[in-house]
Amino acid sequence: MDLYTAGIQQVVKEAGYATVARELRMDEGRLHKKLDPDGTVPLTLADFIRIAVMMRDPRAVTAILDEMGLVAVPVERPIDDASLCDRIIHQQVAVGNVAQEVQAALADGKVDANEAWAIDRAVDVAIEKLCALRSELKEMAEPKVVKG
Question: What pLDDT is stored for residue 1 in this prediction?
């Protein structure tokens, strides 16, 4: 298993091989073989993409994005009745969740790897909410900004 497929392996392991194999309509044993670092059955690009899209877990593609110097931000589809104020509230709640994760992590005086991951995830969610707010504001702008 190389650096690029290690993320997929971790995501599938946490979700459960049986669950992922069922969703992929693949034999669980075959999925194990494809994700085995020393296995002889290759993980195809098509399988990699199917798993990454199905799992919707950024860890599946983080190494690839890092290599390219990119960051992925999920596109939040606007909800018909969601107002700008709702987006602001959602963003503020997300920032509050970051503070809660940090407070919980520091309760014992140290931050372990799982707590750091939880904080990282909470920060990502807060950034996503802020980006969604920014996107909605840009869409509301008159006249529309034209990218050149």
Answer: 54
